[in-house]
Amino acid sequence: MLTPPDIVCLGEALVEFNEREPGLFEQGFGGDTSNCAIAAARQGARVAYVSAVGEDVFGERLLALWAAEGVDSSGVRRDPRHPTGHYFVTHGAHGHAFSYHRAGSAASRVQPRDLPHELIASAKLLHVSAISQAIGNSACDAVCEAIAVARDAGVRVAYDTNLRLKLWPLARARGVIHEAIEHTDIALPGLEDATALSGLYDADAIVDFYRTLGPRVVALSLGADGVLVADGDRRERIAGHRVAAVDATGAGDAFDGAFLAMLASGADTFSAARHANAAAALATTGYGAVAPLPTRAQTLSLLGR
Q1: Which residues are the active-site residues?
Q2: DSSP for 133-159?
């Protein structure tokens, strides 16, 4: 990428197998920060991704995906000894469920020394998530290093609290996540995760709690009910959009990507959140984490622009 990126996303990308009907799985792609990178790119942002993949067919497919989506993958390392992770999505009466096969993956072995410091320092925004810290000790250290590099360079840091209790116990997750958020500018919690992490149930109380940790901006996703956003000067509850939802797998990542893309373009916090709220709704209208991520034109159409 000759021009510095608007956004650098760091984490683990995976190959997805999503159950379209009982026993029939469709291959796609996932991984929260990779989904975010693609979502932002489809909204017109210049995006780079930092990670590692195996020297296997799944790693090759992910590299081809990023190339097709216009995401710079120069910060993705090929690992000859460890595989690319994958996961299965099944659907039932209580929503979607994930079964992960990522232990010992290439991305979980990323070290702080593997990071492209110049790429991170050249961006407007760095995006990381709790999952990236939960998949391995070295990966956790790499996230902390990336945050430090970004802050030293004046790059704003966004953090999604994506909580996966299959990866680590709640007490450890709470400590690591809240420590990381103290060093970020934009907190992106979801209501269910934030309730587990903070012990709070009221949306406004949760936003207040996360703002006391340090971020100026908090965007609390409320699922189908939209999002509650605060920036220190004001707050706004943005209602969800009525759409024909079939799969919410990548909706939060769609919000993150669209929100950061709009911020990078110069939009104010609340305009960015309204745009991202529409993008998240559209992301639920198809199966899989990546395929239904909307373009900027599709998002503007839903907003009536």
Answers
A1: 253
A2: HHS-HHHHHHHHHHHHHHHHTT-EEEE
Choose among 303, 302, 295, 304: nearest CA to 43.
295
pLDDT of residue 2: 65
Q: How many CB atoms lie within 10 A of CB 77?
A: 17
* Single-letter residue type at 274: R
Name which of 94, 88, 89, 61 is nearest 76 in CA terms.
61
**Residue 3 resides in a domain:** no
Per-residue CA distances from 217 to 5, 110, 122 (Å): 21, 29, 22
Let me know if residue 225 belongs to a domain. yes
What beta strand segments (E) does 93-148 contain? 95-101, 125-129
User: Is 253 a domain residue?
Assistant: yes
Domain that holds residue 238: 8-302
Q: What is the CATH number of the domain that holds 53?
A: 3.40.1190.20
Residue 203 CB partners (closer than 8 Å, separation 6+): 191, 220, 222, 228, 237
DSSP assignment letter at 190: B
- Rg of the chain over all Cα atoms, to the nearest angstrom: 18
Rounded CA-CA distance 231/220 in Å is 12
Q: CA-to-CA distance for 75 and 251, rounded, in angstroms?
A: 25
For residue 146, tell me if it sits in a domain. yes
122-172 confidence digits (pLDDT tens): 999 999 999 999 999 999 999 999 999 999 999 999 999 999 998 999 999
Q: How far apart are CA 175 and CA 181, in angstroms?
A: 10
Angle between helix 251-264 and helix 32-42 axes, rounded to 10 deg: 50
Question: Number of folded domains in the chain?
Answer: 1
pLDDT at 96: 74
For 286, half-sphere exposure in the C-beta direction (CA atoms, 13 angstrom radius) is 13
